[in-house]
Amino acid sequence: MTVAYLEEKPATRLAPSTASFASGIRSVAARLLGAGNGSRPLSFVGSNGASGQSGSGSSRPGRPQAVGNYDGKGTYIIYSIAHKLFISDFNSNVNRPIKYIRFSNSGPLCHAFDSEAKDGHDLIVGLSSGDVCSMSLRQQLKDPGHEPIEPQHFINNKYKEGITNSRCTGVAWVPGHKGLFVVSDADGNLYVYDKSKDVNTDWTFPTVEDRSEIMISHAKSSKSNPVARWHICQGAINAISFSPDGAYLATVGRDGYLRVFDFAKEQLIFGGKSYFGSLFCCSWSIDGKYLLSGGEDDLVQVWSMDDRKMVAWGEGHKSWVSAVAFDSYWSPPNSAETEENTNETMENTIYRFASVGQDARLLLWDVAMDELRAPLTSSSSCSPTSSSGRSPSTDWDSTCPPARVLRPSPRMQEVPKLLPLATQPVGADPLSALEFTSESILAICREGRITIWPRPIDSESNNDQQHPD
């Protein structure tokens, strides 16, 4: 699921909240997701882009409505089912998508929208064939038909490398690099494309001899597209995510490892393993200091860029975690007071995030950094000692790991445990994606049902109106 803004995107917070508002965040969570323990249900707003409607969120995508008078603005929800890409108007009262795009030869599996692109192609779609289509969302909305309008088709000639399991698993625009996007695949490779270059040029990359090792190769011709191939792991890359400034790229894979790369230097910074099985998702905090991941161990992990390791894990899901996201729009009551004490702000930072899983549950979390009891040390002070030959627990007690080292999972008792503030069942089908907007929280299941919840109104402002001095 992708939320596309064809107008000015709502401003995100430049920094998370502070611990001086811990009671505020808990009261907000209680009003949003019940009394803080998940005992009360969420109020339903709509499904598949509808609003102002009561129900359980169980309606399925119906027949798309006509696009109507498209003015080039608005907020849209993009999601895929089978061989179709659906587009819903986020602010519409119509409980159906306004358009779908049909892909005849292969199904759309992933997509990304470039909010910085004011014109031209701003939407990329990864297909089950391993190919990628780029197109203009504005053009698609103007046309009532169901075929892609003026798409660019980036054909991935992986058959030359003897690769058959080549479906796309993730696509992402590179922040701060106009026209660059990356595509991850089920073969453990990641390809870097430039949308300004010819899409029909031939390309080849060196054969990967050891598929368990990282290997980065560049195209021999400056005209080739893709411009580079990163072989990252043996097995599928399940998800990718760029830090907000585009400096770092995070990947999670079937092998259970989170890997973080310096994108410009093309270097592995650090990596860590799940407690069990594959990792399916990852997401950055708005300040780029922390990462979330989730997967087959039913847990949510919090990773620190400064410490280059897991600093907390959260228990609450009853099945695999399929999506995680920080809430970059949330701001606490009286947030202006955060500037009064800079030192306290730095020490008492609070982050809010959410997760959804195959247990059809939405979980809301917060984490205060001063409660983790983990030393926050800069990477420059880390010892370059290799971790080979040491037990996982002994190695975990060191301040932070050597650069470019994939760490084993730490003992659970050595890492702070988090519990969710609230738990909300959402229908019966497994949930597959999660998004925060400035006004709401969205979750989607595999069948294409989108459930939307509004953000609560600030209780303090309400109290002031009800009880004036």
From TrEMBL:
Keywords: Repeat, WD repeat. Residues 44-66, 376-409 are annotated as: Disordered. InterPro entries: WD40/YVTN_repeat-like_dom_sf (IPR015943), WD40_repeat_dom_sf (IPR036322), WD40_rpt (IPR001680), WD_repeat_creC_regulators (IPR051362). It comes from the Eukaryota. Residues 46-66, 376-394 have a biased composition (Low complexity). WD repeats lie at residues 237-271, 272-313. Pfam families: WD40. This is Uncharacterized protein. It comes from Oryza brachyantha (malo sina). The gene is LOC102721209.
